[in-house]
Amino acid sequence: MSDKKAVEKAVCLIVDDIAFDRRMMRRVVGKSCPGLPMIVAHNLGEARRRLRERTVSILFLDNSLPDGRGVDFVSELAEDRNLRRVPVIIVSDFPSPFMYAKAQAANVREVWSKREFVAPAVQRAVCTHALH
Question: Which GO biological process entries does UniProt record here (predicted)?
Fold first, then answer.
């Protein structure tokens, strides 16, 4: 970990490839947790870079991305000793029973539909799961 990364405040990482959904998520996080810095990634490759560059306190991760599935990415994170502690909330248009099972096995904290991405849920998730 770089010295710069060690002294920066931990951030919320939002990963979604749809601009409308990213804007909605940023707006909800901003209103429900105004002091929490946010960064975004449009795909898993960009998410990997962001996770190497910054300390992430909580990750809101879309499941369907152009370069892979969020639920598979979480399994990848679980294998990395530096990233396995990052709390992940998977946010999907249509969560399936298979996705829930795979997410549970990968230690995902919660699985939400995008309709469930509302201020009270975000505030509760950040207070309950975020690394401080």
Answer: phosphorelay signal transduction system
Continuous H helices in the chain: 3-7, 19-32, 44-53, 70-78, 97-105, 119-129
| Domain range summary for the chain, segments of one domain joined by + | 3-129
- The CA distance from 103 to 30, in Å, is 26
With respect to CATH, is domain 3-129 assigned 3.40.50.2300? yes
Task: Spell out the residues 6+ positions from residue 106 whose beta carbon is closer than 8 angstroms to its own.
Answer: 71, 74, 75, 77, 78, 88
pLDDT digits (tens, 9 = 90+) for 7-39: 457 899 999 999 999 999 999 999 999 999 999
For 41, counting Cβ atoms within 10 Å of its Cβ (0-12 exposed, 13-18 middle, 19+ buried), the class is: buried
